[in-house]
Amino acid sequence: MLCLVRVRKLHVAVLATLVSFPVLAADSANSNQSDAKTYEQVATKAIDYLRTKGQSSDGSYNAQTGIGVTAIVATAILHNGGSPDDPAVAKSLKYLSGFIHPDGGINVEGSRHRNYETCLALQCFVAANRDKRYDKVVKDADKFLRGLQWTDQDGTDRSKLNFGGAGYGGTKSRPDLSNTGFLIDALKAAGAGPEDEAVQRALVFVSRCQNLETENNTTPFAAKIGDGGFYYTAAAGGSSMAGTTENGGLRSYGSMSYVGLKSMIFAGVGPDDPRVKAAVEWARKHYGVTENPGMGKAGLYYYYHTFAKALAALGEDEFKDGEGKAHNWRSELLAELARRQRSDGSWINENPRWMEGDSNLVTGYALLTLAYCKPSK
Fold first, then answer.
1. pTM of whole model > 0.70?
2. Helix (H) or strand (E) holding 327
3. How high is the pLDDT of residue 154?
């Protein structure tokens, strides 16, 4: 009788095990289906807002700030299923085309943000270039951007902390990690691979903005914190938007750390390289979707975009935090964006720093982020 009872118990246990797998698969499918529904609802409301309330009659968004916001919004719509022939997108593309210069730059006349504006516009034209109509625009803009980078070709020695970087785009403006990240993104969009000379020069600058002392980073700041995160710039005396430590270290913060991580990946730095390993470890320790680590709510939506872009480039669908807990980062980020979306479909940051009090810019950032959160079918 005891043997029979044991056999029956074993039989029940085996059945329970066999049944559990389909249940888990069903849970995963249901979760994916729920995320897909959320994505469609959130993205549709956002695009409707931009089309009906955000866009001016000339196709621009916040023209008084330059062309950057227009490029961001149009690119975001294109990355979320929009067509270049969609009336709102077509109007924005026509508007942006009016700022193309003979030298390849795409910027407001006399702009002090030529690198920033051209990088964003180039990516927009690449996203819209489905019938090759913008081939020349992209090629010329790519050449123009290369001319703004600090290189040995203009007398900047590799030992100088400006080397490889790009700034906003005034006459050889101070380079920073944010604008250098935009440069790498634009070069990649135009077809540059990791081996490209401009990308490799940019990697020199990116590596020097990391709180990690290596053969690639012997700046005065490299070992003062050593946490593997990134700060704004090592050039011109160094600067971090998150402030400094008592020993003069430049504090790492979220948005720049993810810019640094994805830039290194785009430049071909592998997962076993000390720079990437340290950056990933920093990201694990500071994982979160409710604030920009080290900055609170400041720059939150720019952070969301860099966070999503870097983790997508890293190729980890589940990302473990510093305590070893696995996160479906796409699902968590999607839920947070859905929670923060306003009833009219827009987003706005309660902290207006870096123009994030503007609903067009912030909604553009949110849509760019959503493109990385879209559940696979």
1. yes
2. strand 326-328
3. 81
